[in-house]
Amino acid sequence: MSFLLSYARPALLALALGATAPLLAAQPPAQQETQVPGVYRLMVGQMQVTALHDGMTRLGAALLAGAPAERIQARLAAQFLAAPEGVSTAVNAYLVHTGTQLVLVDSGAAACFGPSLGQLLANLRAAGYAPEQVDAVLLTHLHPDHVCGLRDAEGRAAFPQARVYVPKAEADHWLDKARMAASPAEAQGFFRMPQEALAPYAKAGRLQVFEPQALDLPGIRAQSSPGHTPGHSSYLLESAGERLLLWGDIVHSHAVQFALPEVSIEFDSDKAQAIATRRRVLAEAADQSLLVAGSHLPFPGVGRVKREGEGYAWVPLEFSPLPSR
Amino acid sequence: MSFLLSYARPALLALALGATAPLLAAQPPAQQETQVPGVYRLMVGQMQVTALHDGMTRLGAALLAGAPAERIQARLAAQFLAAPEGVSTAVNAYLVHTGTQLVLVDSGAAACFGPSLGQLLANLRAAGYAPEQVDAVLLTHLHPDHVCGLRDAEGRAAFPQARVYVPKAEADHWLDKARMAASPAEAQGFFRMPQEALAPYAKAGRLQVFEPQALDLPGIRAQSSPGHTPGHSSYLLESAGERLLLWGDIVHSHAVQFALPEVSIEFDSDKAQAIATRRRVLAEAADQSLLVAGSHLPFPGVGRVKREGEGYAWVPLEFSPLPSR
Lengths: 325, 325
Prior knowledge:
Number of strands of chain A: 15
Low-confidence stretches of chain A: 1-24
CATH superfamily of chain A: Ribonuclease Z/Hydroxyacylglutathione hydrolase-like
Strand content of chain A: 25-35%
Distance between the termini of chain A: 56 Å
Structural class of chain A: alpha/beta
Oligomer: homodimer
Largest interface: A-B, 59 and 59 residues
Number of helices of chain A: 10
Number of domains of chain A: 1
Radius of gyration of chain A: 23 Å
Strand order of the largest sheet of chain A: 1-2-4-5-6-7-8
CATH class of chain A: Alpha Beta
CATH architecture of chain A: 4-Layer Sandwich
Largest sheet of chain A: 7 strands, mixed
């Protein structure tokens, strides 16, 4: 009996003693240690798109320029995002199951930006896929948070069966060793990281540098959207009359840049061109009620753009079940 | 060799033949059949709250009244939600791990409203919990999409260890058999369904009818928020200086009722009172930057309220990892 008193759960004991309701609450299970996997699925016609969360990084508001600082701060505060330590910002990638191929668009940061990023492979597995099943990786651009995930922790190709597609203007810029050598020391990492990330694929004959208008993948077209980087490209999926634009880094701060498209971010290679591209893409998305997905919009980063006042506003897609088949 | 030619995956075969890149793509794995589980976690001080998706139901725009139909349609269209078949609307419930107890707030619709709802138990299990571990179920009100989930498919208590808490004004209204008998035939189901859902708990001595101001659970206070139903109540969690208001059915159409709080929904018991309650709760939430969660807001239904123009706007919380311990 002393054994029972020591080990029986109090609630079970109360029931055993004939109470209709437990007199003492049972010890509850432990709280969960981690968030659910950052995975979300949607259909685009016959294609299935899986948003994969690579994690979060902090972007200081001082990186944003092009409007008075008070106006930028007011926009952040209106979204409850003003934070002296920087705005917590998602890094998303998208796995497209075209029906015949698995195509990953961007690959996350792996270990290039610290432990708050680098969850893409874990989330891809949680989504029911293996990295060996990926047929192609399309890169919107060669910044580290989009390319470092091409390599695993041992430096090997994380997607050993995949061809990797790089827009030509990106390759011309970031893979140019002479340009790297001529760059300031603090900028050289932005050349070195994509060169290292692409090396195993280049060595295996799997690196494909392409002109956006010449990309030839079924249901996927590339659209040049330069400014953030010289060859920044977006990918338009189209299937059975439905479309989704994977726009890459058109917006880094949803709280600020939809309302104020004239605000650029420090990392933009050519700020004026980045702003012009953003204005063009936002106008097209709004005019066409186009479904878009963005690398740095709140996960899963999928939604639509509406006109609001002088600028635009973000309308995220609602969590919904998949249509039944 | 014919065996190999027939059964080897083409990509592996290409590798075996010495090609550096496969000449033929491997057959991809099948597309996933279902959405990821509707589960999302957040911390409120030391409490862990798990949002659980019960599914989606369609609400026709004609159920909304209190503003010109064109104004309501314009609000829906601005959120890309105008749909002749009705607006797809979430049903959410919330599991609160207080540290010492598991408290479920609302229980979903089970089979009461068809197969697009009733996923709460599956999502609770996907979240790592068992229904037998739930110590208490707090009900915001006794509408079927909040109470039917109290029973499993066999009509037994789905949460066999739980006490079920019902605000007194709700019990007085919906559990009153004389009132039910005096109601029009088409309204009687709204009495019958909660009576049936609560029966196994009443029989087991686990039904607790309470006055909101007298609710005595650590870190959880009840707030009377009547109008949608006579005893509609909201639950305020507070832990380590953080707060979350589980507000129940203060808003049914986020696209319309934040901007136009004067719009009521057909199901409101007392429309004028529901509108007055909504105005009061929205003002308090906005003034306090209070984190709130709503049963019919886009899953996970957690966010904040900001003032915008004459009304308000919804600012959903961003998907984020749990803070590390």
